[in-house]
Amino acid sequence: MSKEIRYITNFFILIIICITLLIGSSLAWNIHKENQTSYELAKVEASGNYNKDMVFRRWASMHGGVYVPITDSIQPNPHLNFLAEQNITTTTGKKLTLINPAYMTRLVFQIGEKQYGQKGHITSLNPINPENEADEWETKALKSFENGVSEYSSVEKIDNKKYLRLMRPIIVENSCLKCHASQGYQLGDIRGGISVSIPMNKFRLIMQAKINRMISTHLISYLVILFFSALAYQRILIEMKKRNRAQKIILKNEVILQQQNKELLLAKEQAIESDRLKTVFLQNMSHEIRTPMNAIMGFSSLLPEQFHNKNDLQEYSNIIMQRCNDLLSIINDIMDISKIETKQVLLTLEECNLDFLLTEIQVLFAEEQKRQSKTNISLLINNSTTDNRTFTTDKRKLRQILINLISNALKFTDKGQIEIGFSINESKNIIFYVSDTGIGIPASEQKNIFDRFTQVEQGENRIFSGTGLGLSIVQGLTNALSGEIHLDSELGKGSTFTITLPQNSNQNNKISNSTTNKAKRDYDFSGKTILIVEDDEHNSQYLKEIFNRTSAKIIHTYKGAEAVQIVLSQPIDIVLMDIRLPDISGYEATRQIRQDKQNVIIIAQTAYAASEDKQQAIDSGCNEYLSKPVKAKKLLELVDKYLTESAILN
User: Residue 124 carries which DSSP code?
Assistant: First the structure.
């Protein structure tokens, strides 16, 4: 028997045990309830007899007793000799004797016992007549009355037969004092009690018939459940045996398949682990950079409340905000590591002033010195004598390349200096270099130095901190800029990294002038209507501030559905559409607008920054896509571009 079959067998045995206990408990409970019901019925009948006996006795007491003829069975009561009229003779000569209520009640009880089997007894702890003396059960009941109990009942055996015995107290009334005042009783005292005993036999017969029916019903139900449980058990066993046979066949094939997939699985696990390490690094790096950025930006917002020199305060705030923008740019560049491997790095070409770039590098080097606690290392900047000081490239990525190289050099240099400079070769290419007097790189490790998560260690006990991605990012960004990177290093003497980038000075000057002029001009959008769809209060206020200086008419709404109605009901030139809105998304709002309005310009602006988000915005009908944080200069240029194109087409 297999393990599963044993499990199913034990499971069904457990079910049968539970069903047996359940049905048995139900039967026991119902029998208990029937016993309780028969007891209550007997108690009701006993209570009725008691009430009847009390009525008889009360009636006799009200009339001072009853006169009956003197016979052999009824003789004058010697306990009433103190009464002057105990015995009387009628005018016809018939002799009568007075029967007191207690005596009369006892005589009635005797008749009831002979005819119906019901026993009754009037008794007291201090009876006048010895025949009214209480038995053991009645004594307990009478004593309980003295403790405040109003009724005493239980099932007891009398002459080996079960009776329901019930007893209630007799309270002294005015009519009782005629016979019992001499005993010291007062009005309201408990003088004794009347006990009633009802045979349980007739109730038992009725109860037993019901119990027999319940037993039959429960037994039939139990057998039916057992029958269907057995059928289910057999059916499951058959299906399990079929499944086990199929599993054996599958297992034979699976052994072969597992052997074939073993190497593939190992390769997959290695790839997953590599991607996991990259993902963890990117997440941690994002957190580590955003944390100081948050503190800096928060501090800049508090500065106006703490200082009085507004000019210096504005300058400090601008510096802090610039550093925040730099950090945010670095975050975006680091996230490009995954795009580097898939050749999806996006470049933003703009004018780059080499002197300003090196000045920035010098400032950032000082900050890096403090962070790494290496203020003894100096930075030497070698400025080229060339007249061409600007060229077109992705300035942020170039700055990131140089910062990574300098930070890397500082990490592995304990004494001496770091040098950075640039020159232009005969092919008009710009050559940047970063050299240090650090530990150097062994020749055996130089071929792997640009691999991910690779670091050089010197000795057994020296391990340098860092992610091991810096040089990998440098190489990837250099390739994206159509450049080349070269390493010259000697162990114990230092390293030199050389970056060669192409440049076109004529084109650079043209772009520089155009960009500068655009930055200085004032935009005039008078006569144009711009709809801002933004649910964040501060973001919407920021956008309004940008366009308030352009003389454009500004309309604002928080909801996508309301934006659709506004566009369909009046002329709108530009729609700045947020994507995440409280009712419908910006994508859905754009699709609804495009059903009737094909010419309105819609620019998506959202915190979602992935390439697939941009594609989704374009697919929904947006003309352009901007990721937050939105820069005023770029937004104004974009709006001006589309308004100009629209004016030409119209």
Answer: B
